């Protein structure tokens, strides 16, 4: 076995490989770009080598720099992870030429599967069913149009060099074909430097089912059953599971046999995945699935197969690469239970899944194992305080669950996502949780169009319940602390009404200003109202971790995270973010007459006010970051701004003049 390996990757997969290597007593070398100097994979590895600046083309794709790093650190082998250089046959050859071992298949096997058209021709020759279509060399557009007509519409145009759904076009009628072909070829040229396309019959109600294979250098090739990855958005996997729902022994036997034949046909070695498209319009059939492509590396979703087989695939990769035989035969393998994986991303589902960035001011997962089998496993490459940058894939973590059967595993997935709390960046957590509870998903009726059909319901932003608003108000006033509020007069700095103590606070909830009145009713009982909604609750327990409260005889749990971006209340798994708006009218010192003064020392993080601008009362003027919170300073009245005396990024002292309004005549 190797003494030391280098991991040519970043994020969760680099961390995951390091974990297994460590367990096996193998030293690890990480590589990092300037943007990743403080990243998790760097701190977890025994050694780390800088390979270049942030852009991937100058760092994680720099094969030569990575090989030089491995030689310099004395590593004997390179694990490529997924993505980056993992399926680059030239890199494999360079690694081997440098006298190092590539932990993956031979370059020839990667090359054989590298182009979709050549791979399909090869598979056809090996007797593996392929999607009916045209995958020839002739790229003349009239010829391709004739082939499309012969296949029968609808057809799918695919870039032969494609990946990640790029260069793919669904064409419903012959009239649309020429334009679709032109745009697919253009995208293929731009993305892969190769405009060539193939044409496939479009399978309606398609299911994506893939088979995990493993081969050693001693002639053994096995499969480790299938995964269903049909829950996709724009051809990208969202939630994966193993085994596939509705799979029969007959279909499994046919599909896994085809996968093993595919691997044997190209002299495969190591971990690989053979992807099939299956007709999901009815029950799965032994003649109703076709080869799509082979991924010659470890897949993102490999943990669901690890969960149902109890094996560590990275350990198997390392053993195979070191020349050991696979430690089992096909007949030794069994499926145990059911597993799901959800891919948690920093992205805004409600806004077309735009990638999001931000610093993860709060990040906590349910009790879970990391990189090991368990009922709940979380594979993450970031921790609280880390930034999601625009440089790399915005994945935060993979949440993997394992249960005795599909229904219990799926329920556990929903619960685990609800118990995942992230503040500081928009994420797809709520979308994933909603998807895990979708009736079609629960029934196992998954196909690649499910998400698109129900997108609006799956991405609808959840309303902010009055209890979340109430807890935000209580937290903002510093009344969460159990020592506070037993006697309302103890702590109150606000108003004294006739019979109750009252405090006032204004919160900004997504641009919506809520002026809250918090009545302290004694014995930790609070009534919070924004004028239209009221919540009355009793705080039972509050510590750093959880807040238990009672409303109407119902005991519930919430969490509050306070960070620079404001205050986040997590209720029923859903984060509700608030900013504190300083009560300028009451406080008196935030503005005096026409001057907006800094109510405390802080950093100006955002400036909305501009000289000569007309503003209305309540309009945000600037954001001041102080005491780990952002405070939005708003206009105390309608008027015109005379002068702005600060700039973004400026540190200001208490009482400093920030913005001056033009005086109102008379
Ligand atoms: P890429 O390599 O770009 O990811 P794939 O060939 O793996 O492309 O296909 C990605 C996804 O597109 C599949 O998982 C499936 O959802 C859909 N797809 C691919 N081929 C077909 C087809 N012939 N009919 C219907 N859907 C397809």
Radius of gyration: 29 Å
Number of helices: 19
Helix/strand class: alpha+beta
Count of strand segments: 41
If you had to describe this structure to a student in words, what would you say it looks like?
This protein is an alpha+beta fold and 666 residues long. 26% of the residues lie in helices and 34% in strands. The strands form 8 sheets. An 8-stranded antiparallel sheet has the order 14-13-10-11-12-15-22-20, with helices on both faces. The chain has an 8-stranded antiparallel beta barrel with strand order 25-26-27-28-29-30-31-32. Helix 4 runs antiparallel to helix 5 and helix 12 runs antiparallel to helix 13. The radius of gyration is 29 Å and the shape is globular. Bound molecules: adenosine-5'-diphosphate. Adenosine-5'-diphosphate binds at residues 131, 156, 158, 162-166, 168, 200-203, 206, 208, 232, 235, 275, 277, 292-293, 448. Adenosine-5'-diphosphate binds next to strand 7, strand 9, strand 10, strand 13 and strand 14.
Short description:
The protein has 666 residues and is an alpha+beta fold. 26% of the residues lie in helices and 34% in strands. The longest helix has 17 residues, at 249-265.
List its salient traits.
8-stranded antiparallel beta sheet; binds adenosine-5'-diphosphate; 19 helices; alpha+beta; 666 residues; Dna Ligase, domain 1; Rossmann fold; globular; D-amino Acid Aminotransferase, Chain A, domain 1
Topology (SSEs and partners):
Layout: E1 4-7, H1 11-23, E2 27-33, H2 40-44, E3 47-52, H3 63-73, E4 77-79, H4 89-97, E5 101-102, H5 107-114, H6 116-125, E6 133-134, H7 141-151, E7 155-159, E8 169-171, H8 177-192, E9 197-201, E10 206-215, E11 221-233, E12 236-242, H9 249-265, E13 270-279, E14 289-295, H10 302-309, H11 313-321, E15 338-345, E16 347-348, E17 354-355, E18 358-359, E19 362-364, E20 376-380, E21 387-388, E22 395-403, H12 406-418, E23 421-423, H13 429-436, H14 439-442, H15 450-453, H16 455-459, H17 466-476, H18 488-491, E24 495-496, E25 501-509, E26 512-522, E27 525-529, E28 534-542, E29 547-551, E30 554-563, E31 566-571, E32 574-581, H19 584-587, E33 591-592, E34 595-597, E35 602-607, E36 614-615, E37 620-626, E38 629-634, E39 639-644, E40 651-652, E41 657-661
Parallel strand pairs: 1-2, 1-4, 2-3, 4-5, 32-38
Antiparallel strand pairs: 6-9, 7-8, 7-9, 10-11, 10-13, 11-12, 12-15, 13-14, 15-22, 16-17, 18-21, 19-23, 20-22, 24-25, 25-26, 25-32, 26-27, 27-28, 28-29, 29-30, 30-31, 31-32, 33-34, 34-41, 35-37, 35-40, 36-39, 37-38, 39-41
Helix pairs in contact: 4-5, 12-13
The structure holds adenosine-5'-diphosphate.
